């Protein structure tokens, strides 16, 4: 017959816990609000799924998880004249990250963007102009 037991005490070496905490990332997101100023309107814009955040001080790469108000390659979103806004949501950066780069890798196609040396903020919400 099943029964409820008292939670057993488990001793884990503190140095092991610290090492594990450095290897894991709590679930988080990085939100980048983008503004594209179209001088004439009716420009085609899109985001490539190969757009990443690169931690400048480690080999960590955050991937694009979702995009709002912009289509993904190969589909185009048509702009209006003036400011057009869209939002990119990335997987989280490691706790140790203080500066990162936002890079759209378009396989050599024109129109890609690269914003370097973005200083990390506590809320992980950023605003960029393209």
Mean pLDDT over the full residue set: 87
Q: Outline, from the CA principal axes?
A: elongated
* Structure class: mainly beta
Distance between the termini: 65 Å
Uncertain runs with pLDDT below 50, 5 residues or more? none
The biggest sheet amounts to: 7 strands, mixed
Number of strands: 9
How much helicity do the residues have?
A: under 10%
- Beta content comes to 35-45%
Q: Walk across the major sheet and give the strand order.
A: 8-7-3-4-6-1-9
**Tally of distinct domains:** 1
Over all CA atoms, what is the radius of gyration?
Answer: 20 Å
Order of secondary-structure elements: HEEEEEEEEE
SS summary, helix count: 1
What are the defining features of this structure?
mainly beta; seven-stranded mixed sheet; 130 residues; 9 strands
Topology of helices and strands:
Elements: H1 14-23, E1 29-38, E2 44-45, E3 51-55, E4 61-68, E5 77-78, E6 82-91, E7 99-104, E8 114-119, E9 125-129
Parallel strand pairs: 1-9
Antiparallel strand pairs: 1-6, 2-5, 3-4, 3-7, 4-6, 7-8
Q: Could you explain the architecture of this structure?
A:
This protein is mainly β. The protein has one domain (27-129). Helices cover 8% and strands 42% of the residues. It has one helix at residues 14-23, and strands at 29-38, 44-45, 51-55, 61-68, 77-78, 82-91, 99-104, 114-119, 125-129. It has a 7-stranded mixed sheet with strand order 8-7-3-4-6-1-9, with no helix packed on it. A hairpin with a 5-residue loop joins strand 3 (51-55) and strand 4. The chain is elongated. The mean pLDDT is 87.
